[in-house]
Amino acid sequence: MKTIFITGATSGIGKATAETFAKQGHRLIICGRRKEVLEQLQIELSNITEVYSLVFDVRNQEEVENAIHSLPEEWKNIDVLVNNAGNAHGLESISEGNIADWDAMMDGNVKGLLYVSQPIIKIMKERNTGHIINISSVAARQTYANGVVYCASKRAVDVISEGMRIELTEFGIKVTNIQPGAVETDFSKVRFKGDEQRAATVYAGYEALKAEDIADAISYCVNAPERVSIAELCIYPKAQAEPRTIFRK
């Protein structure tokens, strides 16, 4: 049984990952910004495993530090960190981009990942064991027009994952970077600021990945034999050839 810390656990890939690990009997620390949603998830998952919840915004370094330091002693030995929290905002060219959207993506996808990782890495290094899962995107592999800042933020995740692996392997800490393709979650709804009709077009005409597919992949990486370290994993739906190309019926 492992203690698994999951950011962005209230929806999408984060929630599916929490549900998958709960069924396997692992202890969970679920994190998110939406207190009521987080508490409801905690109630549901507590029926099958031990669950502790932390409410914070990964973009706020002080909130992150205070939350992690507030963990009771019996919850501080974190075995696995799943850096899932992140966002995409807007789909405009650089010349027309919204600065607030840029800040939200860089603060959440890059700085937030670092804010959460640093204190947990210190815990893992003291114990000479651990596993960090970073959720990147196929957008890190190929930049596309009108999504340049999002692509840049996810390529940064790739670089951070590589750097973590270089710095942490000697301490017995595994680092896995996962690049999902098109996954049908609230991702596009957030990107298009609640425009459900526009978001629906992203997943029209083909079968996108489900959040559970990525959760299964994360589970495989975490539950692989101790000698095995999955460095990178790129996952497309069958209909997607590369980040910009999806074959629709």
UniProtKB/TrEMBL annotation:
An annotated Gene Ontology molecular function: oxidoreductase activity, acting on the CH-OH group of donors, NAD or NADP as acceptor
InterPro entries in UniProt: NAD(P)-bd_dom_sf (IPR036291), Sc_DH/Rdtase_CS (IPR020904), SDR_fam (IPR002347)
Top-level taxon: Bacteria
Keywords noted in UniProt: Oxidoreductase
Keyword Membrane: no
PROSITE patterns named among the record's database cross-references: ADH_SHORT
UniProt entry tagged with the keyword Oxidoreductase: yes
Any single Pfam family the record assigns to this protein: adh_short
Residues annotated as signal peptide: none
Family named by the database record: Belongs to the short-chain dehydrogenases/reductases (SDR) family.
Listed name of the protein: NADH(P)-binding family protein
Provenance organism: Cloacibacterium normanense
